[in-house]
Amino acid sequence: MELENLGYNKKIEKLKIENNLKDFEIGRIISEHRERYVVKTEKGEYDAEITGNLRYTANSRMDFPAVGDWVALMVYDSYSSIIHKILPRYSMISRKAVGQSGAIQIIATNIDYAFIVQAIDRDFNINRIERYLAICNSSNIKPIIILNKIDLVDDSKLKSLITSIQNRIKRIPLVWLSNASQKGFEKLEEYLCKGKTYCLLGSSGVGKSSLINNLAGKNIMLTGEISKSITRGKHNTTHRELIITEKGILIDNPGMREVGITNSSSGLKDTFSEIVALSEQCKFSDCKHINEIGCEVLKALDTNKINKASYKNYIKMEKEKTHFELTVSEKRKKDKKFGKMIKNLKKQNKK
Ligand SMILES: Nc1nc2c(ncn2[C@@H]2O[C@H](COP(=O)(O)OP(=O)(O)OP(=O)(O)O)[C@@H](O)[C@H]2O)c(=O)[nH]1
Ligand SMILES: [Zn+2]
User: Top-level CATH class of 109-257?
Assistant: First the structure.
């Protein structure tokens, strides 16, 4: 396996040199299971753990490896290898961790493109597309919208769905296709490129797994590939999260379904650029664009210069973002308090 097929390029080569990692193997995390990682390098796949130093200096989940990361690996033998460093990430997709308010969980890193998948049936919802766009825009990932299951509608219905998307969402590639009839795949393949990394975003049932199977050759998602790593055959049962094909690297990750808004300020700005541009001209700088005097957004809404549905979606997501930022800052405060308490306890113990 050439490292280029895994996504290796000059940027990563440069990072390797800058970080003094000449003596290490460079590999990519292709799956993760409870702090054990499978790393793929030019020479093969290795089960790996992180160095104690990485663990003890970690401040949060962000400092642990994630699927998609490039890492510096010291290979001892086929049973043991150690991750010494995570190379800086150029993009990252994350979500709020379940249970712990404010904590962020990384889903995957170093992704170039996201396929935002929607099916033309019950799932069709432009608000949801905008939501995923905001996530892409805040994560440094280029979006491509896929409308799937077009075999289920006639041409005129399809046309009207396409128009309804294009009326609201401009300048983002849109591909319509069917996994069942295979229509539209030539168009999708124009966006695929060897060595680029793609993730799939979309609700359950929209056809993400079917799409991966179609792109990668049948059955990858059904059976999982049996690992070539000889280490105790441990990850035969869990399917691989990074799927390397001739046309690109695909990430399927169960967590993708649950991605929500996190720190999407830049995401909202790029997704609703028209609205945000107007909001900068509002009379009051803290205008919420709901009923304020001198609100340029409301003015544009009255004269149909902006889309009403997009406006509503924007206001809703702006609220969520504010709420999220609040929970994060509260969590930080709590963590600080807790840290102080521990410090004081230690002091007392010494005495
Ligand atoms: N008619 C039709 N059915 C499709 C198409 N693509 C997928 N399906 C069906 O839709 C259902 C869900 O497809 P999956 O590929 O499992 O969807 P998914 O997005 O991976 O779902 P999760 O794994 O739950 O996230 C399956 O029954 C597929 O056979 C399509 O293009 N046309
Ligand atoms: Zn306003």
Answer: alpha beta
Burial class (CB in 10 A: 0-12, 13-18, 19+), 265: middle
Q: Alpha-carbon distance 98 to 85, whole Å?
A: 27
CATH of domain 265-339: 1.10.40.50
Distance 209 CA to ligand 1 centre (A): 7
312 is in an annotated binding site: no
184, 150 contact by CB (below 8 A): yes
Q: Answer for the pair 198, 250: CB distance below 8 angstroms, yes or no.
A: yes
Looking at domain 3-86, its CATH architecture is Beta Barrel (2.40)
- Does the Cβ of 179 fall within 6 Å of ligand 1? yes
DSSP labels, 122-167: TT--HHHHHHHHHHHHHHT-EEEEEEE-GGGS-HHHHHHHHHHHHH
C-alpha to C-alpha distance for 62 and 252, rounded to whole angstroms: 20
Q: Write the pLDDT tens digit of every residue in 138-179.
A: 889 999 999 999 999 999 999 999 999 999 998 999 999 999
> Residue 28 corresponds to which tokens in the numbers above?
């990519």
Q: Is 112 annotated as a binding residue?
A: no
Is this structure's pTM higher than 0.80?
A: yes
